Amino acid sequence: MRSLRTWDVDLEQWAAEQIGQPFRWGTTDCVSLVKKGQKLIYGFDVFRVPEYKSKAKALRTLVNVKSLRSVLRSCASQVGRRFLQAGDIVLVGKGCSELETDGLLLVVRDYALATSPVAGVLAVSLDAILVKSTTYWRVNVG
User: Fold this and answer.
1) What global pTM score does this model have?
2) Could you tell me the strand order of the sheet in which 89-96 lies?
3) Across residues 129-137, what is the average pLDDT?
4) 137: which of 70, 89, 110, 123 fits an S-S bond (Cβ 3.0–4.6 Å)?
5) How many structural domains are present in the chain?
6) Mean pLDDT across the stretch 133-141?
């Protein structure tokens, strides 16, 4: 997979527009944000996870794909934390209290785009992501 020419600039601009948006299933939940960010980078949905618009359909989708980790394994490889770069994905074990499952964040620059049903979309410093059950992923290119 080749990234689009101006993906880094496009990603930063898009992420800035997302910060402060309210939480909405299918739009600003963690999977939807990461999918949209990856589409900006590569030009298509690298996850190939069906769209949804409600919590119930998000749960059904998660059951169908087995786990977020299995989705990542199909299109990405783990990287070390010190090698993080824009476009990488952070998988936080049990990071989604709303679904009682793992949560995803998208690395933008020196921060990651995160979401919460209470706070909406926010920027989280990479230094603040120190959870033991966290893994870091980079979409496979080439």
Assistant:
1) 0.89
2) 76-79, 134-139, 89-96, 101-107, 111-116, 120-125
3) 82
4) 89
5) 1
6) 88
Q: Which residues contact 95 (CB under 8 A, 6 or more apart)?
A: 30, 102, 103, 104, 105, 131, 134
Other C-beta atoms lying within 10 Å of the C-beta of residue 90: 25
Amino acid at residue number 135: T
Residue 78 sits in which domain range? 7-139
pLDDT in tens, 40-56: 999 888 888 888 899 89
The CATH number of whichever domain residue 33 belongs to comes to: 3.90.1720.10
Q: Are strands 101-107 and 111-116 parallel, antiparallel or unpaired?
A: antiparallel
pLDDT at 98: 45
CB 21 within 8 A of CB 120: yes
Q: What is the DSSP letter of 22?
A: P
Does residue 53 sit within a domain?
A: yes
In a domain, 32, yes or no: yes
